[in-house]
Specification:
Elements lengths: L1 E6 L6 E6 L4 E5 L6 E5 L4 H9 E12 L2 E12 L3 E5 L6 H8 L7 E6 L2 E2 L4 H6 L1 E4 L11 H11 L7 H7 L15 H12 L6 E5 L7 H16 L3 E6 L2 H7 L2 E6 L2 E7 H8 L4 E6 L4 H9 L5 E5 L2 E5 L5 H10 L4 E7 L3 H10 L2
Bound molecules: adenosine-5'-triphosphate (ATP) and magnesium ion (MG).
């Protein structure tokens, strides 16, 4: 069911019409009795998502010789979102970002940013996009201000904003210091300041917290949230789940080039609520014992790792599980319990257990 508000062509009264895509509804205006009809677009839902997608990636594939670094991935990011792109080292995050930004050629698919094809309209796309690369590089012999002035010139924008930006990022007193003498945290701040030259409406941050101390991580996190509040759509990659969880509204998980999950943080959070682990050391694990344990009400999942049976259940079920196994004549050599962490979910998605 689709809902649309239309205005009466005679008296301008707003009328809510409900119907299915493709359906025609005959309407009488409740105010002036004007009669008319309204047809819902057939592809209404599709259109709606497209309108909102500020980053639209379809079937993106990038190969390095035989290695498929990015394998046919599709996703979209809506305006105003903080999209967290999560994956272990080597998963394809940086390659995806570079392909999206048109910095490397890709083999298949298309990418649209702000509705423009990145390959057909690269200049237009880059105008509204900021990028903090994984390895931030500057001209080390130049000062921070000289560096930003240079990039402002490259982007063909006024240099007036460079010093205020440096100040905004807490580097005011080091504006004339050579970037080669900057600490990692200072470089990262300057990198973010550079990404914001020209007031882009989307920024791509590739592992922005990597190598930062806890204070630096907190600073970047707050800055991301503040930028987002001011209307900037943010695409942030990380291999650290807590990093992504702290700021993102939507999450995509990539593993070995494949997008294995995409959901809102809330939904993923629900899925992530996996139960604690009961780890039972058993000398001979077979299908029988797995089946017995799986049958117990409240047991979520049973895994086997070498001679350990890992049972995901509330710890109050502990004795039930143990009794069931012992009743089957199977000896338990050792029992351990472990609280599940969110990392487990990430592992689940990225190792395909
Ligand atoms: N220029 C290149 N030539 C050949 N292989 C490459 C190149 N760049 C990346 N790869 C390979 O593509 C795969 C994905 O790499 P990518 O850098 O995109 O991963 P990532 O998810 O960003 O990892 P990390 O968390 O370590 O930054 C890896 O196997 C990597 O070795
Ligand atoms: Mg990377």
């Amino acid at each position: 069911m689709v809902e649309k508000r239309i205005s009466c062509p005679n008296c301008n009264k707003l009328i809510t019409v409900k119907g299915e895509p493709g359906e025609t509804k005959y309407i009488t205006c409740p105010k002036c009795n004007e009669k008319g009809k309204f047809t819902f677009k057939k592809d209404y839902n599709e259109d709606k998502t497209k309108e909102l997608a500020i980053i639209d990636v379809k079937n993106l594939t990038k190969k390095f010789r035989d290695l498929v670094a990015v394998n046919n991935i599709s996703f979209s990011v809506k305006k105003g979102e903080i999209f967290g792109f999560l994956g272990p080292n080597g998963a394809g995050k940086t390659t995806t970002i570079k392909a999206i930004l048109g910095l490397i050629k890709y083999d298949k698919g298309f990418v649209k940013i702000n509705g423009k094809d990145v390959l057909k309209d690269p200049k237009e796309v880059k105008k509204n996009v900021g990028y903090l690369p994984e390895k931030v590089s500057f001209y080390d012999k130049l000062s921070a201000l000289q560096n930003l002035n240079f990039y402002a010139e490259l982007k063909n924008i006024s240099k007036d904003k460079c010093l205020p930006l440096i100040e905004e990022f807490g580097l005011g007193e080091y504006a004339n210091k050579k970037v080669g003498q900057y600490s990692k945290g200072m470089r990262q701040r300057l990198g973010l300041a550079r990404a914001l030259l020209g007031d882009p409406n989307i920024i791509f941050l590739d592992e922005p917290a990597s190598g930062l101390d806890p204070r630096g991580v907190k600073w970047i996190r707050n800055k991301i949230k503040q930028l987002n509040k001011n209307g900037v759509t943010i695409f942030i990659s990380s291999h650290i789940l807590s990093e992504i969880q702290a700021v993102s509204t939507q999450v995509g998980i990539i593993n070995k080039g494949v997008l294995v999950a995409q959901d809102s943080v809330d939904n993923l959070g629900e899925k992530l609520k996996i139960k604690p682990k009961l780890i039972l050391k058993i000398s001979k694990i077979d299908d029988k014992v797995k089946k017995i344990v799986k049958k117990i009400k409240g047991v979520d999942r049973v895994e086997v790792s070498e001679n350990e049976l890992i049972v995901y259940c509330e710890l109050k079920l502990r004795s039930k599980v143990i009794v069931a196994i012992e009743n089957a004549g199977i000896d338990i050599e050792n029992i351990n319990t472990e609280q599940s962490s969110l990392e487990d979910v990430f592992m689940k998605y990225t190792e395909g257990n």
